[in-house]
Amino acid sequence: MTDTALTPSRSSLNPFSGLFSGTVGPVIVVVAAILAIWYIAAVALNTPFQEELYKRADLTDVPISQLVTDTLAQERPVLPAPHQVIVEIWNTTVEKKITSKRSLVYHSGITLSSTLLGFLIGTTLGILLAVGIVHSQVLDKSLMPWVISSQTIPILAIAPMIIVVLNAVGISGLLPKAMISTYLSFFPVTVGMVKGLRSPEIMHMDLMHTYSASRLQTFWKLRLPYAVPYLFTSMKIGMAASLVGAIVGELPTGAVAGLGARLLAGSYYGQTVQIWSALIMAAILAGTLVALIGLLETLTLKRMGMVR
Amino acid sequence: MTPSTQASTTAKRRIDMAALLAWFIVAMVIAGLIFPIFKPDLGVMDVPRLSVCLVILAIAGVRYELGFMRNRIGDVVLGLVTAVAAWLLIATASNHAGDAKAGFWALTAATWASAWLFVERLATWKVGSPFARRLVNLAIPAIFGITLLVIWQIVVTGAGVPKVLLPAPSEIWLRLTSSVPTLWADFRQTFLKAVLAGYVIGCGSAFFVAILVDRIPFLRRGLLPVGNLVSALPIIGVAPIMVMWFGFDWPSKAAVVIIMTFFPMLVNTVSGLAASHAMQRDLMRTYASSYWQTLFKLRLPMAMPFIFNALKINSTLALIGAIVAEFFGTPIVGMGFRISTEVGRMNVDMVWAEIAVAALAGSLFYGAVALLERAVTFWHPSIRG
């Protein structure tokens, strides 16, 4: 910021300055740069294997253009090119029937359902804990340190055990995976809501006091509305964490179904294109879910007249 | 909670939690007296140790109800009674594993309630010296944690939960102490090699990229939204790819850790570098300080709270990344490897021992970063208090 203020003449000399002064231009450039690096890396990483192939086929003096197109069209490349991944995603989403085991939509649906279930339980739990912590001094002092330290435990490490053990008891399917999502998503919600429920100023609390409002009334009319923006912010983090939990939760079940299973199966059989397509699909899913919460946030805050 | 709101809430409290808990203790003790304790129809009087437990709990509960010795000495006595009762319950449960009946659970509930009552009383202590206050503030969560462990132990042994499902803390401790060499080898492989290397490289490179990005406003505008998006993505999914590229040993895990820690650090450092106020920057300009002087004397110190926030987030992410990456392939050592194989062999106590090590390592790592933060950002309002 200081730099631009000091040298205003530099930007005016640049003919493209108007185009790139906002956010959209730079973001497009950065994304294009990432794609370009991806292509170059794909060529570079796939070349050794391709040269090996040429040597076996006794092909010498292969032109560079041939080499490049070949490296970008391998069946099991070290790094698949973006267009290969896009074609794979297209083939496994639009071309396949949704009920097919090879359809990415089917696998995403399974991951999505456990993500949402875990997120729902986690958010509810987080809100309840936050309400307890805000209203009880003992809970605040005794529970809050444990809520924080619960996240220093690499919970994902327990994921396989929770799944296998619950399977042994006869609980299988959605719930074990959702439990891992719950564990990961309750924390941001608790911390955010505690902060939010305590965000009303002393003046406002005192005003409620002069109205002789009960704690319940103070909660519904003052604390909760104040906490809503915090809730949405932490729900976004919780949703992302919840998806990670669901994906990792699918690993130990032995690659049955879900995006995590696609990742595991892909790594077993060296199907890099499949891994990347599952990864991109997970990214799209995460982006969509977070954007949906963002949309809900805008609508709710607008309705409440709290748009900042 | 600010002092004034605290005062108003305590004044308005309609439910006296402490009295409620004391009543609950008394009710549970009576239930323990009526219902059978252990399976072949043993009453509480047939088990001497449990009758002692019942009597002291009853006295503690009734004493509080009558308002006798509602002071610190009484509270300390209550704590001692709780500890003795818990010890008696644990000792008896191990002799009658899996035979517990309603009376036993009533006594367990009474012990739990008296632990809660003790914490409730402890929270109201007004201690003068700051050291003692800190001690009390540490004791409350510690007692909560110990209570959880004790309840876990009593429930698992009392109800005879199969070891495959959930081992008792004592069994986990036994396994932990008896297999230190294995655990140490795993710890070295996963934490000392993969996590630390990945954490240092990931955070370090992100830090330098952030300074570079901050220098060029165009990059900052372009990279920040992308970085924010990437932080929300399930990056852990790159683990199989990294294992494919860098082999089974620790470098592939370090690579996962680098990717996972890079973006939180980048985003936080960039927004931290923008945290200094215009007034402060103007002051630096009136001093005719160069870019680097402004960076080192104003903007980096101002960015420290943000940077440490990222370092703390990353300390957890790094451990998770390394352990999960090991699920996709490892040499025959490592915490993630041990967890996934021992689960397969149904050695659940070993898994829990490994988790205890991971939790300890994660907490210490986080604690170390937090201590460093206190030392570096001593000037920040949240530290000065």
From TrEMBL, chain A:
Segments passing through the bilayer: 20-45, 104-133, 153-175, 240-261, 273-296
Residues of the ABC transmembrane type-1 domain: 104-297
Record bears the keyword Membrane: yes
Subcellular location(s) per record: Cell membrane
Keyword terms, alphabetized: Cell membrane, Membrane, Transmembrane, Transmembrane helix, Transport
BP term (GO), one: transmembrane transport
Topological category with respect to the lipid bilayer: Multi-pass membrane protein
Family of this protein: Belongs to the binding-protein-dependent transport system permease family.
This protein's name: ABC transporter permease
Species of the source: Roseibium aggregatum
